[in-house]
Amino acid sequence: MKVEIWSDVVCPFCYIGKRHFEKALEMFEQKENIEVEWKSYQLDPNYVYNPNKPESSLEHLAEKKGITIEQTRQLIEHVVSMAAKVGLNYNYDKIIVANTTDAHKIIQLAKSKGLGDRAEELLFEAYFIRGENINERETLEKTALEIGLTKEDITEAFESDKYAHEITKDIQEGRQIGVRGVPFFVFDRKYAVSGAQPIDTFEKTIAKAYEDWESKNRTISTVNGIDGSTCDIDGNC
Prior knowledge:
Blueprint: E1 2-7, H1 12-26, E2 35-40, H2 57-65, H3 69-75, H4 77-85, H5 101-112, H6 116-129, H7 137-147, H8 151-159, H9 162-176, E3 184-187, E4 191-194, H10 199-217
């Protein structure tokens, strides 16, 4: 059964939601039958990064909401607390606001090689935990190598239109099925969970979606019946 997750690596709830989903999936007995596919989504695709004046997340939020830095710290306390409960130590003092287009190119490249989940994890970690500047290609190249990608692949991701097209495709697909914010989890194109819901919500949704999927895809393995005369494919009758 496929689970599709629309996400942006600068979304604090996306990283928390990833952890909640992972914990729920780990407890699911049939987890080996679950396929996870990450989908691109951009919270602010028009954000313009100024390399001469990198903008901290706290400064950006304060300016956007017209409040002080101290008020901003208080505003994000609940997010930091939620993250800490699942072992994520968000470092807002170091986070640099980013346009995620190039990061999503790396994710799309990684997806094509079966490394989508690892790409999401390491890019989340780079942004929220280590406070690395993911606007810079040097940072993304370093992270991409950690993911397991080659320098040749990374160069292609940045220079080719192929992965930019895949980003657009994911975003348009999301709009068509009603994605208006992230994280957004879709189970077998039948059930959806929006936001970093509690672990038990994911547990229940995984179980229900899988039950329906299994019922729909169940094949008859044995049939009880009456034996009679037959012929086999070797011509024995």
